[in-house]
Predict the structure.
Amino acid sequence: MLYGYYFDPTYVLIVIGMVICMAASAHVNSTFRKYSKYRSNSGLTGAQAAKMILESQGIYDVTIQHIGGDLTDNYNPSNKVLSLSDATYNQTNVAAIGVAAHECGHAMQHAKGYAPISVRNALVPFANWGSRLSWILIIVGILFYGNGTGQTLLDLGIIAFSLAVLFQLVTLPVEFNASGRAIRVLESTGIFGNTELKYTKKVLGAAALTYVAAAASSILQLLRLVILFGGRNDDQ
C-alpha cells in the first residue's frame, strides 16, 4: 500500500528543500544589492569588463549581448553567446562586474576544454527529459499500482528524476570553478583591487549557495520518492 493519500510525513523533505532554496535566493539578492552600491574604480561596465576579460584570455569569438531581467546572466556554449542582464550589462558596480566575470569564467571553461562543463552540457538533454518524464511515469505508476506494471513505472520515474539530480550535482564544481577563474582574471587584469576582490568573493559565494541549495533540494525530493515508491511490491 502506498502511503501519501492522507497524511504524508515525507512532505517535510519538500518543505526543508523549499526553505533552503528561499534562504539562498534571499541571501544572493541581498548580497548583490549590498555590493551593487560600490562603484568599480575602473569605471568599466559589466559588458566592457566581460570583453576585456575574454580578450585577455585570447577569446575573441564570444558574442556579448544584453538580455532583460535581473541576474538572468548566462553563457550559452552552443552558440558562444554571453548574455548579461539589466543588473550587469551597463552597470559599473562591483557586483555587476563580478557576475559578468563569472559568466566569462564559463566561456573560459569552454575554450579551455574544462571536462566537467563538457559533462554538464552533455547531461542537459537527459536532465530535461528526466525532470519532465519522471512525474508522468510516477503518476501513471500510481494509477496502475497493483497490476504488475506499477512498480516498474515508479522505478523508471525515480531513475528519470535521478538524471536531473545528477545534473545538479555536476553543476556544482562547474560553478565553483567559474567563480575561481573570475576572481583570478579580475586580479590579473587589474580590473579590481584587493577591496573590490573581497566584495566580489562575497557576491559570487552567495550565488554559489543557490546552486548548493538547488542540489540539496533535488536530493531531498529524490529521497522522498525513494521512501514513498522505491523497492515496494505491487501487493503491499
Observations:
- The chain has one domain: 11-229.
- The beta strands are 63-66, 74-76, 81-84.
- Helices lie at 11-35, 46-56, 94-112, 115-143, 150-188, 194-229.
